[in-house]
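During the reporting period the student researcher (J.K.) took over the structure-prediction task from the postdoctoral fellow and processed the backlog of single-chain submissions. One of the processed entries is reproduced below for the supervisory committee.
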Amino acid sequence: MKFRVDRDVFADAVAWAARSLPVRPSSPVLSGLLIEAGSEGLMLSTFDYETSARATLSADVVEEGKSLVSGRMLADISRALPAGKQIDFAIDGARVSLTCGSARFTLQTMPVDEYPTLPEMPSATGTVDSGEFAKAVSQAVTAAGKDDMLPVLTGVRIEIEGSTISLLATDRFRLSLRELSWNPRTPDETVAALVPAKVLAETAKSLTNGSEVTIALSSTGTGEGIIGFEGAAAGGVRRTTTRLLDGEFPKVRSLFPNEHLTTAVVDRKELIDSVKRVALVAERNTAVQMAFADGQLTLDAGSGDEAQASEAIEATVNGEDLTTGFNPQFLLDGLTALEQDSVELAFTQASKPVVISGRDEESTALGFRYLLMPRRLLS
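J.K. obtained the following structure tokens:
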């Protein structure tokens, strides 16, 4: 195998493929990055039996072949090579050599025949705007669980119904729902999948170079199926597949109430800053109190002989006066996930969850909603 490739394109593709390498691989070859040079250019691949990544890019291939080398080492070397130059890559016995300008590195190869076969990309289900998808995923994963003892809650449920994609996540204390439009392959198709939140977030963020992302599902449910994502990148195409999570995602849509007795509209940045200040005196696992009355929102934290804080900001309150409290970090997570200048906090009653959303959402009702459970207030 022998080829020449642009250093900047190669380094970027290697870093992208290597990002999903396992920290503690079950087999040494799973720490490797597979390099395949052929008539169609270069393919760089990683796979850990759960998630695969493959980047294709243009290269001047002199001799076809394939090699397996340490993925993280190759990523470190590629990043350190002088920018704007060409890399000459060749196999030399049981080693590979990289030459870029006056810099030359050699790497030990791993047994290629022991490397697992990457899964095939399922048939395309549809396409979605890459920037909008990345934004939607970043909002949805806000409420995803991080407890590996509850693996179902570490996923994001993707629901596809016609031209709408819904992304749902919950850790039992909060719930996020993001809806967006897309271009389905089959207009009336209805499918669902439970995707690991971490993989989904990293993938969506990394596929924004092209105008759209192709989503491909091999199953209409959870468990044995896989989901694939593909998008354009500098010099080629990038593709990721991952196994779907097994288990029944809780039926959480019904938690969003149809009616609200009290609503408050507040400047988002002002509320974020106030919560951060007041939360400085909130003890661990205690709530920041929020009282809505007389055209303002009053935030309080601390009690007794401990440090205390109080701050009031303007709010447009419709409905009955209400006092409740929330975990300040969970509240901030939801507020910072929004992009609108104003936010609406909608309540049915003080002891029930609040629904937080951007005030200037489009009338189509597609957008981001964040439901947060209240915390008990200290007397």
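The committee noted the following: The chain has three domains: 2-114, 124-243, 256-372.
J.K. will present the remaining backlog at the next meeting.
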